[in-house]
Amino acid sequence: MFPVFFDTCVLLKPYLCDTILTVAESRIYRPLWSVDVLAELDRNLRKRGASDAQISHRLEQMTRHFPDAEVKDYEQLVGSMTNDPKDRHVLAAAVRGGAEVLVTENLKDFPNSSADPYGITILHPDEFLQDQLDLAPEVVHDAIRRQVSRYRRAPRSVDDLLDILGNEGHGCLGFADACRGDRRFDTWRS
Fold first, then answer.
1. Is the Cβ–Cβ distance between 32 and 101 less than 8 Å?
2. Binning pLDDT at 50, 70 and 90, where does residue 185 land?
3. 68 Cβ contact partners less than 8 Å away, ≥ 6 residues apart
4. Hey, which CATH number is domain 2-124, 3.40.50.1010, 1.10.150.120, 3.40.1350.10, 3.40.50.2300?
5. Residue 117: other Cβ atoms inside 10 A
6. Distances (CA, A) of 183 to 24, 180, 189
7. End-to-end Cα, the chain, rounded Å
8. CA distance 33 to 98
């Protein structure tokens, strides 16, 4: 199980976050985040109108299901990071957590020159999910089915979820198309 650090922008989108963490439940990778990432998540959810109860529930679920995800004691590394100053705490926590991959939508804030010395690959969530699909297609397909089965409201089908993940707001069109195009799983969407 390899460690993967998730930036706030990835965890903020509800269906994308749920997909990433549902796949992680299958133990093909270990999700990582920091107290700073969770604080940013809290702030951004508030800006989007989430209630205190909704935010509390979401953060509690994340920490309950992944009790070893929070990286600690990274603050002293922040000053030595060379990526965008506003995101240095993210790279510092990824380094401290031993992450092999850092998943973010803000690729420009994490140039390869800032992450290469630490052996960390920077990936967009679409590319990350496509990699997981290539590496463990059955696991990913099972996770997506499980995810949809937990919803009481839309999306009620895998196709509906893939529509959401592939739209502009979630930005994982490549992943959605790859799932739909995988003929080994013609029946997986039922």
1. no
2. low
3. 30
4. 3.40.50.1010
5. 10
6. 24, 8, 11
7. 29
8. 11
CB-based contacts of 74, cutoff 8 Å, min separation 6: 34, 89, 92, 93, 95, 96, 97
Strand order across the 2-6 sheet: 70-71, 29-34, 2-6, 101-103, 121-123
- Picking from 8, 3, 11, 2, the residue whose alpha carbon sits closest to that of residue 94 is 3
Count Cα neighbours of 179 within 13 Å in the Cβ-side half-sphere.
28
| Residue reference for tokens 């100053």 | 85
Domain positions in the chain: 2-124, 127-185
| Alpha carbons 76 and 131: distance in angstroms, whole number | 32
Phi-psi region of 119 (alpha: psi -120 to 50; beta: other; left: phi over 0): left
Q: Which residue has the tokens 């920077």?
A: 122
DSSP classification of residue 32: E
On whether the pTM is more than 0.70, the answer is yes
Q: Please report where in the chains the tokens 């509390």 appear, as a residue.
A: 56
- pLDDT of 120 strictly over 60: yes
